[in-house]
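testing teh design pipeline on a random one, pls ignore if ur not involved
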């Protein structure tokens, strides 16, 4: 599995309470995934959020794929 652009995903306890975010900005991976799951296209996201780059979207998808492929996933409460 490719891990390209994962350096764009940062985890800092001082930013968004330590949730994985894009380039230490106040925009989380989960926010990006919710936009995509809601049907927004890459281009719509880039148009609506000018500080987001295509590589950020790809990094979020790569990060999510990496998390989903972990050996143990705990059930959500």
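output:
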């Amino acid at each position: 599995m490719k891990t390209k652009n994962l350096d764009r995903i940062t985890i800092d306890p001082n930013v968004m309470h330590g949730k994985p975010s894009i380039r230490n900005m106040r925009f989380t991976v989960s926010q990006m995934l919710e936009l995509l799951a809601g049907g927004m296209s890459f281009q719509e996201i880039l148009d609506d959020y000018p500080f987001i780059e295509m590589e950020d979207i790809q990094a979020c998808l790569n990060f999510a794929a990496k998390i989903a492929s972990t050996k143990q996933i705990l059930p959500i409460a």
